[in-house]
Design goal:
With about 290 residues, the chain is an alpha/beta fold. It has helices at about 25-35, 45-55, 70-80, 100-110, 120-130, 145-160, 175-185, 210-215, 245-260, 265-275, 280-285; strands at about 10-15, 40, 60, 85-90, 115, 135-140, 165-170, 190-195, 200-205, 230-235. It contains eleven helices and ten strands. A five-stranded parallel sheet has the order 3-2-4-1-5, with helices on both faces. Strands 6-7-10-8-9 form a five-stranded mixed sheet. Helix 2 links the parallel strand 2 and strand 3 (about 60).
Length: about 290
């Protein structure tokens, strides 16, 4: 293969594959997989279906978190002999909450060229559709499941001014939303993306307080706790406004009502302005005559 985008011998290609919709497979990815000497795959059965779809006959070598340590020397030997290896995970970009990092690091240390073949990534797809700031963001992957590490991670997120992207499993979604609400604040905005690029893709947007309420009883709100989830969390605001007393809120509510604004609309407006719960402000408005 030549220098104009063609694969070189003795090169590890890190190839992104679709996260659901096979139409997201790039022309370059198909070509690299066809021309490689071997494909290092997280699950050869899963990748085999993708290869069959695109009529790719390149042989596979399993390379996953349970055999990666012993597989790396074998792959390095092939690469040093001049072979081209394409690294793929089950979905998305290898190394992003998927196996691949140790092999990539070993190749770099051995002086073997590592070339990315970009494509689908659930974190980026959710981020750009979240409606939250894209100026600065961080990817945290899966939070620690429990203990001091989890508490420390949550406390760090409470102070992080960047938009944060998290992955979560369906059975832990409500627990994570509850922990986030209790640590970073109930009114922090969050986007919850499920089954991205697939038939039942859905993106929910709202506050953490509403997220806990609605995802705790998904059937009532037409939600589904199945599939793969990506959470995009609003960053902390550097200079938070001082918390208003009930008396101050009542004065602002009365001022809006005096201008002809209804109680419900005034409550929504103040809740949005001061980043408060709409229910809390509306219940306060009922004190007004």
């Amino acid at each position: 293969m030549n220098q104009e985008g063609e694969a070189k011998v003795g090169t590890l290609y890190v190839v992104a594959t679709p996260i659901g919709n096979r139409e997201d497979m790039t022309f370059r990815a198909v070509r690299v997989l066809k021309e490689a000497d071997a494909i290092a795959a997280e699950d050869t059965r899963h990748t085999g279906q993708l290869l069959k779809h695109f009529e790719i006959q390149t042989p596979q070598i399993s390379c996953h978190q349970h055999n990666e340590a012993r597989r790396i020397p074998e792959l390095l030997e092939k690469l040093q002999q001049g072979q081209t290896i394409a690294l793929v995970s089950d979905a998305g970009t290898p190394g992003i909450s998927d196996p691949g990092v140790p092999l990539i690091s070993a190749c770099i240390e051995a002086g073997i060229s590592v070339v990315p073949v970009p494509g689908a990534c659930a974190a980026i797809a959710a981020l750009v559709a979240s409606g939250l700031s894209l100026a600065r963001f961080s990817f945290e992957g899966f939070l620690p499941v429990k203990g001091k590490e989890r508490r420390a991670s949550l406390e760090q997120l409470a102070q992080d001014s960047r938009t944060v992207v998290l992955y979560e499993a369906p059975h832990r979604l409500v627990t994570t939303l509850t922990d986030l609400a209790g640590t970073v604040g109930e009114m922090r905005s969050v986007a919850i993306a499920r089954e991205l690029t697939k038939r039942y893709e859905a993106i929910w947007r709202g506050s953490l307080a509403d997220a806990v309420t609605q995802w705790s009883q998904p059937d009532e709100y037409g939600l589904t706790l199945k599939g793969e989830f990506v959470l995009v969390l609003e960053g902390a605001i550097a200079a938070e406004k001082p918390e208003l007393s009930d008396a101050q809120l009542l004065r602002e509510l009365q001022a809006l009502i005096d201008q002809g604004v209804s109680k419900s609309r005034a409550s929504r407006q103040l809740a949005q302005t001061h980043r408060l719960s709409k229910r809390q402000v509306y219940e306060l408005s009922l004190q007004l005559g």
